[in-house]
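Example record

The entry below shows one chain as it appears in the dataset: sequence first, then structure tokens.
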Amino acid sequence: MSRKTIGAIILLIIAIVIFVPVVSSSQNDESSIVVTYGETTYNNANYKNLVDNYFNVNNAKETVITASDVNKISSGISNKNYNSNQIYSCAMVDLSSSNNIRIDVDSSKITTVTPSMYKSALDSAGISKGYVKITSPVVATGESALAGVMKSYEESTGKEIPKEVKDAANTEIYTETEIVENTGASADDVAKIMTEVKEQVASQNTTDRETIINIVNNVVNNYNINISDSDIDNIVNSVQQTQAVKDKAVEYQDQIVEFVNSDEGQSIVDMIMNFINSILHGGSSSGN
């Protein structure tokens, strides 16, 4: 084996030893990670520490979702109003991966909203990339976490989600939560119903109310759920709202994909491989 080849191998081993721990311990390029805290959690050092330990990231960008932020959403949808000591749910968004969205929910603390419910609502907002983790220091329903997730995406990308798109996603999560509470149905079944209805409505490209009512009734009949006319009405309203903002949601989706594929959004693995290649190239052209 030539000295040149041995030298290249040694350089490669050195590069791997130096840089692979960075990759394995930080699949997270923390410049692309944002943690959004509920204000109650953020203002309580013990609560914040619990959440930080769960997310297990350092130097992430931090932002806070307040009761005022949540009430702007909930008061117009569910008529719920929260105090500043009631906003616990926290979310982490990591955009360092270009893979399809992955959502982890701390089910020991988030009691109502499931990964499939968050995914359905985020789909409605045009969000289909990134890694999302959601938790709370105390037991919480998780409704307010959606606002935190969307705020994290805005902070990560520097692109604001159109208000009407956020409203549609939040309406969906509140609607699903209410149906779970009213019917006793599983949250995942309710999310499946919503997803199937949205898919059929999108395939027909309709906002016609009677058409959507028929679709909802047909989908619900496939599930063993005793659902009221009022709940069916709420599903129809939510899906109409989602369908009406579909184009703007797609625009935001394109912005996220553009960010993930940009130099800023590239993974650290690519940078390491480029560095290794540059070392090997330099070694191969440096003479004896």
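Notes for this example: The CA atoms of residues 38 and 65 lie 5 Å apart. The radius of gyration is 23 Å.
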